[in-house]
Design a protein that fits this description.
single chain; 562 residues; alpha/beta; Alkaline Phosphatase, subunit A; 11-stranded mixed sheet; 4-stranded antiparallel sheet; 15 strands; 37% helix; binds 2-acetamido-2-deoxy-beta-D-glucopyranose; Alkaline_phosphatase_core_sf; Sulfatase N-terminal domain-containing protein; metal ion binding
């Protein structure tokens, strides 16, 4: 008996040690934050001491890249370590009524950690799909590897602040006016030419259709603004005033409860700031030198500190891997209802959110700290990608990566620890939507980071940004008759194209073209990519509104039969 107890004890101890060896993992991903907004990346007027301390106490990735320049594809890539073009997620999901989402067949980062015994939570924005059919929450984070979800299935947008601008921004309002004009004039002509009754019927039908669209546009900010806890809608529309505080508390409580249960924690803080609608709260409101945008950045930094404090209090900061980044570049020309600029700053880089191949659209301010394993004050200037997050964490926890699918990320742990000094990537492919728009090539021992551009953005004249994100998405970049080659390492603003008619650049282009062919071959048979469709906005059956009404009705029913 004693021996058995002893053996059991040894087992317990052993399990305890193993569990404590697994680091806690916290990802803090900010929405639309520019690389030029962070102190550690050169900003001297915004106060970001907590983020700066992550860089100070860990590794600063000075050449880190988002896999896309818009939320949905960038996040889909981070979650799967695969370019969004492979998973059908290259477009932004614009409505909760969209029947699309991250396919269930994908193996995700949280799933990989769940398989290794992690307690996993997503706090904040999801934006990778919701209902596929009526009320089924088919694409919920709970079915993608998260044990707990508190946040928004979509994204914070201006409409949530009552500004109703998303439809204008993405160009649907203009289309609606055209549609109305066509419908009404056709009905009018028909009633004159053929038969008054047919004309009147058609007019009524047109009015219903147009009314439907108008209603959907005007109420977009209500039924896309749902706050969810696991599978329940807890608030609709979302209260932006209190959300920041609530997200922090949810994150802290998750860490505390899982720590008490002796489980390693994977917490994904998918932050609502600094996407418009800006909603900074006192004492940050009005406190920065950069208007509501700056206030929101400084509040974000404070939130990072709040989560850090919890880890410190529990004395688990040492063995916690804390990863801070943004989902892509800042939206430089974004403005609010008063015309103030409320988009991020991309430092010296040209381009903005929506520019999948321009540095400003994809360079992100990433810092990783893990005091137990990673060196302090370390700078990695080799190109890395958010695609690398999943394989790197898999290598840390001994997790599984798919062997049958193309995985585009690499394990960069050796780069973080300093055991390796060269990027594991030879090529990185840059997409804008579903179009391959540029390729990065890092030849060994050259120190160069070549980038061959196939397209070029149509920036607002006199600037290096799109006039609006709608223009970037709908007008799109133009095809270059002759691709342009730059060395980003020497020419980060990409202003001086290299002469590809002479060596060594002619051979560099040849190499890149070969890699392009191989890459394209690897895409044969990939899932077709989803494109947003205006009809999604008027499909009430898939809306959270119906969900909410149904939920309330069933609550009432259970109350009645009690
Ligand atoms: C700091 O960030 C603000 C807000 O985005 C920006 O306007 C300013 O130019 C940045 N400063 C530097 C030195 O990059
Ligand atoms: C939103 O939350 C704030 C702070 O908790 C509260 O004062 C306000 O009344 C709430 N607004 C609504 C519409 O519930």
């Amino acid at each position: 008996m004693d021996r058995l107890l002893c053996q059991l004890c040894a087992l317990c101890l052993c399990a305890g040690v193993l569990a404590s060896e697994k680091p806690n993992i916290v990802i803090f991903l900010v929405d639309d934050l520019g690389i030029g907004d962070i102190g550690a990346f050169g900003n001297d007027t915004l106060r970001t001491p907590h983020v700066d301390s992550i860089c100070e106490n860990g590794v600063k990735l000075d050449h880190d890249l988002a896999a896309a320049s818009l939320c949905t594809p960038s996040r889909a890539a981070l979650m799967t370590s695969r370019y969004a073009i492979r998973t059908g997620m290259s477009s932004v999901i614009t409505s909760l009524m969209s029947p699309q989402g991250l396919p269930t067949s994908e193996h995700t980062l949280p799933q990989m950690l769940q398989e290794k015994g992690y307690a996993t939570a997503l706090i904040g924005k999801w934006h990778l799909g919701w209902n596929r059919q009526l009320l089924d929450q088919y694409y919920s984070p709970l079915k993608r590897g998260f044990d707990y979800f508190f946040g928004l299935p979509l994204s914070n947008v201006k409409d949530f602040g009552g500004k109703q601008e998303i439809m204008v921004d993405i160009g649907f309002t203009g289309k609606l006016y055209k549609l109305s004009a066509i419908c009404l004039s056709t009905s009018l002509i028909l009633s004159r030419l053929i038969n008054k009754k047919i004309g009147v019927t058609m007019t009524i039908m047109s009015l219903i259709l147009i009314g439907n669209f108008l209603f959907a546009f005007k109420t977009y900010g209500i039924w896309n603004s749902a706050l969810i806890r696991n599978d329940r809608i807890v608030e609709m529309p979302l209260n932006l005033t209190s959300i920041t505080q609530r997200l922090i508390e949810e994150g802290q409580n998750f860490i505390k409860s899982q720590h008490a249960a002796e489980k390693p924690v994977f917490l994904f803080m998918s932050w609502l700031h600094v996407h418009t609608y800006m909603h900074p709260q006192p004492p940050f409101k009005g406190a920065s030198q950069h208007g509501p945008y700056g206030d929101a950045v400084e509040e974000t930094d404070w939130a990072v500190g709040q989560i850090m404090d919890t880890l410190k209090q529990l004395q688990i900061l040492d063995n916690t891997l804390f990863y801070f980044s943004s989902d892509h570049g800042g939206d430089k020309l974004e403005h609010d209802e008063e015309g103030r600029l409320v988009g991020g700053w991309n430092g010296l880089f040209r381009g903005n959110k929506g520019d999948g191949s321009q540095e400003g659209g994809i360079r992100v301010p990433t810092c990783v700290q893990w005091p137990a394993k990673l060196p302090r004050r370390t700078l990695v200037s080799e190109p890395t990608s958010q695609l690398d997050l999943m394989p790197t964490l898999a290598s840390i926890v001994g997790g599984r990566m798919s062997t049958v699918r193309s995985i585009d990320g690499k394990d960069i742990l050796p780069l973080l620890t300093g055991d390796e000094t060269r990027t594991p990537h030879d090529f990185i492919f840059h997409y804008t939507g579903d179009k391959l728009s540029a390729i990065r090539y890092m030849p060994e021992e050259s120190g160069a980071v070549f980038k061959l551009h196939y397209v070029w953005p149509q920036w607002e004249p006199g600037t290096d940004s799109w006039a609006s994100i709608g223009a970037a998405v709908f007008d799109g970049p133009i095809l270059l008759p002759n691709p342009l080659l730059f060395d980003v390492a020497r020419d980060p603003r990409e202003e001086t194209p290299l002469d590809t008619n002479i060596e060594p650049y002619a051979s560099i282009v040849k190499c890149i073209e070969e890699a392009k062919l191989n890459h394209e071959r690897s895409l044969i048979g990939a899932r077709p990519n989803y494109k947003p469709n205006p009809l999604e906005f008027i499909n009430p059956l898939r809306s959270t509104f119906v969900d909410y009404a149904w939920q309330k009705l069933s609550d009432y029913w259970s109350y009645l039969i009690q």
